[in-house]
# Entry
Amino acid sequence: MKKILLILLAIIATCSFTSCSDDEWSDGDPAMEHIYYIGFQDWGKLKNDVVFNIKQGETLAIPIQFHSERVRSYNVVTYYYVSGALIRGTDYQIVDEAGKVLEPDANGAFTTDWPQAIKGVKNIYVKALNASVGSFNVLTFDPKDEITYTNITNSITNDYEVRSFTQNYKVTVNIKK
# Structure
């Protein structure tokens, strides 16, 4: 009798986990229609421990991925930052793919443009100069901001919002001899 009762209780408990709803999965929440996401292409196995090693004098490409599912009439601008003990301009430079030195804006941010909000992968280029060895971080959020368990706003305008993933918000660049 106890076995039958236990079986019946197990069946009832199992049925409580199923849904009887006939809700259709819609095309999306209109409130999320113009929200996009940015993060480094390598996720670092849930630890944010992605590390790139570069020798002095070399240039490194760090892939960053923009997540979008629609083509828009506007372009999206995202930001990335550098932070650490090494000095930009002395120990390393942020450059474009042709090697031209890029300068940050007044807030210390470098920009990446995503024409028509089309998803894709672009590279951030770091050139190690023949100066010091050490490491610094490349981040998808302002290093002065506090990280929370929610997505951090990377870029926001009247047309769109871009959020950085908190799971892969930074990579470490080690400059070696």
